[in-house]
């Protein structure tokens, strides 16, 4: 149990974010006084005090932690200068939040004797900080020092993040302002994986709805095409994800690809990805349909090459199916294949994970994405957590480090990364690619510098206004039934926001 007391400020969310890094499974209880049973947990206090000293107003930040052993660690900081120097209230608040997070982090490091690989960075997109510094023309030395001294990143993570941001920058800098990307969601899968939190529905149960879903999608494709043409926007990349797009029959897959190709202008599309995803959804016929389309990048995702783990996580295929699907795809000429793996799957140890990497190396994919296991709120794993043995955080860290060395040894370099809530060991997900095969879409979705139109059930469109440093989101309903029956409303939602913004620009 974690008892948290805040005085003089209300940055509960920020402080809790830091607490969760150290006490992932503990319940946090907000208290207003110091009377509680310390034998049950840890007491953390963070307070902002305004007082007079020598005729001047002083702002002081105090944080302390007290544990079962009675030991107290505390820190006091004078932040008067920060508050007085920043005239913009919004910026001043941000600066104060940052100092509070750092102060709480530091006392928790003292208390737990543990440092976090990503320091105080709790957001999903850590590379954004580096991009900001690069935009402000700071050099490598400055950026690395900032990451280590101000955000408390480990030496290794600071270098990884810097290199990833540099790699992303090439794609971001080559993107013109009239370019957008398209995401199309196919929310069906053969079965639901243990850790899944995506919009995914078992295809067997929903088979009868696929036709209507495709019809609704076709309508949305046409409407988005009109929005793009009216505004003279060009498509840079297309990503068909899900779910598992190859869950649907070859005839529907063909229908979808033809709809995309006959509607959108593909003249400027540099990358067209289709997530074949699970091998138990891949057939020769489907791969032929994809091979005959404009798709130039696919994903075949093993997650693990250990058969017993595949069974444990609810995937109805074997490692042999993965190898066969991959070879089938290669045989049809697919020359840009990504493979996803997960470090820290329930019951796996470092040697299991290394086995997976060795098996994947034999297939020689163009890119590999290494996810770290995370316990997502909407997943079955979250509900059934007690039934599974989660991999120890230090073992997961070894896996992630081993992947970094191993995959770089294969000639693939890290090119994008992101983090998630409740990720084991507070680690990260990294995409590695052979130079020249980095996914444009993955970089764009992560760095949020490009508008992405998202179509299909549960898809979220992001309209980016770089000059205003602002993003507007348009949500599609998650349920397949609602998406089909309310497709006109989904289209209207997008049209309205585009219309409103055009009006704003004009006025
Ligand atoms: S394949 Fe992906 S989308 Fe489908 S159930 Fe598994 S994790 Fe979810």
Write a concise keyword list for the protein shown above.
42% helix; nine-stranded mixed beta sheet; 507 residues; disordered C terminus; 18 helices; 4 domains; binds iron/sulfur cluster; alpha/beta
Name the overall outline: globular
Mean pLDDT: 93
Describe the largest sheet.
Answer: 9 strands, mixed
Any low-confidence stretches, pLDDT <50, length ≥5? 503-507
End-to-end Cα distance, whole Å, is 54 Å
Helix/strand class: alpha/beta
Radius of gyration: 25 Å
Strand content: 15-25%
Number of domains: 4
Give structural notes:
By secondary structure, the chain is an alpha/beta fold. The chain has four domains: 114 residues, no CATH class; 59 residues; 189 residues, no CATH class; 100 residues, Translation initiation factor 3 (IF-3), C-terminal domain (Translation Initiation Factor IF3), CATH 3.30.110. It is built from 18 helices and 18 strands. The strands form four sheets. Strands 14-15-13-12-11-10-9-6-16 form a nine-stranded mixed sheet, with helices on both faces. A five-stranded mixed sheet has the order 2-1-3-4-5. Helix 10 links the parallel strand 10 and strand 11. Helix 4 packs across helix 6, helix 5 packs across helix 6 and helix 13 runs parallel beside helix 15. The longest helix is centred in the first third of the chain and has 24 residues. The chain is globular and about 80 Å long. The C terminus is likely disordered. Bound molecules: iron/sulfur cluster. Iron/sulfur cluster binds next to loops.
């Amino acid at each position: 149990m974690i008892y948290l007391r805040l005085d003089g400020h209300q940055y509960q969310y920020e402080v809790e974010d830091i607490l969760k890094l150290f006490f992932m499974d503990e319940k946090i209880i907000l208290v207003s006084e110091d009377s509680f049973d310390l034998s049950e947990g840890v007491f953390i206090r963070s307070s902002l005090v305004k007082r007079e000293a020598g005729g001047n107003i002083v702002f002081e930040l105090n944080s302390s932690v007290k544990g079962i052993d009675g030991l107290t660690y505390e820190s006091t900081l004078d932040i008067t200068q920060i508050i007085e120097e920043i005239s913009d209230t919004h910026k001043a608040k941000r600066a104060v939040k940052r100092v509070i997070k750092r102060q709480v982090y530091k006392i928790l490091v003292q208390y737990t004797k543990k440092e976090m690989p990503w320091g105080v960075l709790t957001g999903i997109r850590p590379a954004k900080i580096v991009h900001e510094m690069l935009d402000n023309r700071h050099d490598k030395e400055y950026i690395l020092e900032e990451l280590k001294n101000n955000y408390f990143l480990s030496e290794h993570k600071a270098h990884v993040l810097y290199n990833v941001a540099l790699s992303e920058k090439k794609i971001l800098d080559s993107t013109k302002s009239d370019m957008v990307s398209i995401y199309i969601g196919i929310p069906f899968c053969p079965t639901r994986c243990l850790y899944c939190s995506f919009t995914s529905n078992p295809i067997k149960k929903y088979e009868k709805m696929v036709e209507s879903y495709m019809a609704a999608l076709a309508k949305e494709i046409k409407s988005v095409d009109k929005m793009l043409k009216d505004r003279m926007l060009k498509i840079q990349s297309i990503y068909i994800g899900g779910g598992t797009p190859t869950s649907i029959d070859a005839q529907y897959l063909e229908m979808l690809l033809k709809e995309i190709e006959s509607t959108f202008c593909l003249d400027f599309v540099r990358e067209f990805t289709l997530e074949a995803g699970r091998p138990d959804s891949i057939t020769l016929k489907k791969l032929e349909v994809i091979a005959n389309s404009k798709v130039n990048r696919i994903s075949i995702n093993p997650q693990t090459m250990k058969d017993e783990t595949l069974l444990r996580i609810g995937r109805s295929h074997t490692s042999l199916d993965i190898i066969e699907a991959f070879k089938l795809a290669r045989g049809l000429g697919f020359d840009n294949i990504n493979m996803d793996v997960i470090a820290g799957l329930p019951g796996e140890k470092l040697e299991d994970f290394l086995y997976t990497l060795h098996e994947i190396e034999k297939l020689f994919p163009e890119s590999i994405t290494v996810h770290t296991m995370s316990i997502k709120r909407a997943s079955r794993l979250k509900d059934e957590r007690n039934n599974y043995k989660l991999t120890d955080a230090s073992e997961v860290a070894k896996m992630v480090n081993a992947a970094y060395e191993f995959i770089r040894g294969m000639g693939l370099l890290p090119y994008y990364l992101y983090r998630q809530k409740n990720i084991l060991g507070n680690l990260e997900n990294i995409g590695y690619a052979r130079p020249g095969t980095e996914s444009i879409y993955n970089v764009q979705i992560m760095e949020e510098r490009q508008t992405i139109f998202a179509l299909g059930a549960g898809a979220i469109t992001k309209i980016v206004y770089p000059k205003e440093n602002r993003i507007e989101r348009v949500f599609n309903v998650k349920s397949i039934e609602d998406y089909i029956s309310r497709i006109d409303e989904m289209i209207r939602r997008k049209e309205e926001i585009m219309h409103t913004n055009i009006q704003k620009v004009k006025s």
